[in-house]
């Protein structure tokens, strides 16, 4: 029977293997030989190279058996390489993201085959800690250190002080906490014995995408959103690839790891009942909300920030224009909801639950929106 190819986004399957003193999470995959090459693509300006290498060295020096080794060329990704490639893309949805393709299972353990860390080139990046602390620029070493943590196989930690926290990082954090170090040591023990293993190739591949979103408070979301609407979900449209004609890319592995890698997206039609900020397209109270993820034939992409809209569901969404994602210009005019906090579901008890499962104080929310309405 043909296996369904699954593309996972943001480490949906995480294994809690830890004593109570730790809060780190280990993903379900790792590098087979306890090391990975690191290639900096030519899309990354040379001024950032030393900061990225410093982030890689921080993980190498953490005391586990894992290490990065630099690939000296910057010729781009090749399908025969087993490494992590660093690059830049235009993706206003996320500040940065890590992608991993899994192709092998050895004695029941899944192993990474390719990995890529990409930064949104539309953001302002810096190598200066002072500038990052005093301006809106992002410290590339801090973000690279976090994303490379995903690349080695770690998920998000429950500790808000850890580098691998799911919460917004401070402007500059260039070192690991004990929780981060315990995590990589658990994944790659320093006393690991090399055992003879039998290679078994898996059918298909898995793609994990670990996004880091641009952090915003509720006030910042309210200020920056193009539209804030209360609406009813009407219909989920069929998912499709973000190729020009929506067809399956001819070479999935390589196309997913090109600078503008192909992914799956899905549009949801909503009917707006109240506009709290902004203006709807003239003469139409129905609009499309786009998000990454979905299933096309034998391929399924799962993203932690993808929410499951249900027909007739009441929602409150903080929407932003698509200013240049991989699906820009494809399909109908559409918006993106701010991931997680910007997607709220209204229950029958008139309570609000956001896209990451947190309850939201409806009185405070409505008070904030009423201030927007009155402006």
From TrEMBL:
From the UniProt record, give one GO term of the biological process aspect: proteolysis
Q: Where is the Peptidase M10 metallopeptidase domain?
A: 47-188
Annotated GO molecular function terms are: metalloendopeptidase activity; zinc ion binding
Q: Does the keyword RNA-binding apply?
A: no
Q: Which InterPro entries match?
A: MetalloPept_cat_dom_sf, Pept_M10_metallopeptidase, Pept_M10A
Cellular component (GO) terms are: extracellular matrix
Q: Which UniProt keywords apply?
A: Hydrolase, Metal-binding, Protease, Zinc
Superkingdom, taxonomy of origin = Archaea
Please verify whether the record's keywords include 4Fe-4S. Answer: no
Coiled coil ranges (UniProt) are none
Please give the PANTHER family that the UniProt record associates with this protein. MATRIX METALLOPROTEINASE
**Protein name stated in the entry:** Peptidase M10 metallopeptidase domain-containing protein
Top-level taxonomy: Archaea, Methanobacteriati, Methanobacteriota, Stenosarchaea group, Methanomicrobia
